Amino acid sequence: MIKDWEAGRHKPRDPYRLLYCRAFDLDENELFGAESTSRTEPEDDVLRREFLGASVATVGIAAIPVPFESLPQGRRVNDELVVSLRKRIARLRRIDDYLGGAETYPLYAAELERTSTLVNEASYTEKTGRALLSVVSEQAQQAGWAAFDAGWAKRARQLFKKSLSAATDAGDTALLANSLAFLAYQKVSYGSPGIREADASCRVAERGTPPAVRALLLERAAWAYASEGQRYQVEVERALEEAGRALEESSGEPNPDWALWVDRLELQIMTGRCWVALNQPVKAIAVLEDALSKYEDTHARDKSLYMTWLSEAYLDAGEIERASAVMSQSLSLSVDVASIRPRQRAGAVLERLEDHRSLPSVTELFDRMATPSSCSAIPSTEPTHRQSM
């Protein structure tokens, strides 16, 4: 029955729908989708299929006690609980360093659902309510990022907008700005201009916004500009320079956990990607080679993704042998990673390498691609439009 469900030949009915929802601890609409949802959208089919596999993979993690799991309905929530929720988000966020979005999404979505229920059913002061809404915004961003990483564009966009709304109600300008930056990043990734949202994210961030947050917003703004071509090179360079200065600043306010991953190494990676987009491969190669030499293979998804940019830079520079060698390394890292982004980027670079199949290294690369072991962990029913990340 599950196999037929995955293939779209069977729709579970009661009591199985209820049993599946209980087994995965998910809302019925999340697991099965609204009845009116068109089955022509590939992301919905993939989402159902990945819920089954990924929920099993994360069941051990999901068993971590939830701070408010035993909270009686209507009980008053205090700041101590909010602190516990933030610590839990920080712990669970680390999973994203090692697993792809198709594996982490069910967990992050369940966390968001629990906190949203708490906001609706518990009682609290106005101050605590704003803090809870900030948690909802942060959780929605995390779940949205996982959905984006898995290739579920519609769900990701919904979650980024939910995050934007919650951050606005909470008065949390840092999370509000980051929600706009996520929306810009997603638009750029699917070939649409994201400059308007990226600029808005930088304007929203107040002067007192923590340095790591400003650096994150600025580097994403640089990427939005770079994706529009060489006519925006001045804006790209300015944004990258400002991001670098922000990282050098010290602030009395601690950087939020969700922005701590932004450091000099990440800025190097983004700088190299921008140079590739601006068709300056020599600059890109120098920056990306140095940054990737310091990048741990344990971060397989990110490193494999970033190596596709280095491979493209070598292609632009006419160094085909090096381009195919780097792409081979990228493919090795991306095997069994439940993320669609390295696969889509690899597809774009491999399409260009097709013109050089007469070279032994390129022929060997394509021969290897034909073997099942080199396939990605994500099903082949991802959205048809190609990402440019």
Overview of the structural elements:
- The protein contains 19 helices and no strands.
- The protein is an all-alpha fold and 389 residues long.
- The protein has 2 domains: 1-171, no CATH class; 280-389.
- Helix 4 packs across helix 7.
- The longest helix is centred in the middle third of the chain and has 25 residues, at 126-150.
Overall shape:
globular
Amino-to-carboxy terminus distance = 37 Å
Helix content class: 55-70%
What's the tally of helices? 19
Rg (CA only): 22 Å
Strand content: under 5%
Please specify the SSE layout and strand pairing.
Elements: H1 2-6, H2 16-24, H3 28-32, H4 42-57, H5 59-62, H6 79-93, H7 101-121, H8 126-150, H9 153-170, H10 173-189, H11 195-204, H12 211-226, H13 233-248, H14 264-277, H15 281-293, H16 300-316, H17 320-334, H18 341-353, H19 360-369
Helix pairs in contact: 4-7, 6-8, 7-8, 8-9, 8-10, 9-10, 10-11, 10-12, 11-12, 12-13, 12-14, 13-14, 14-15, 14-16, 15-16, 16-17, 16-18, 17-18
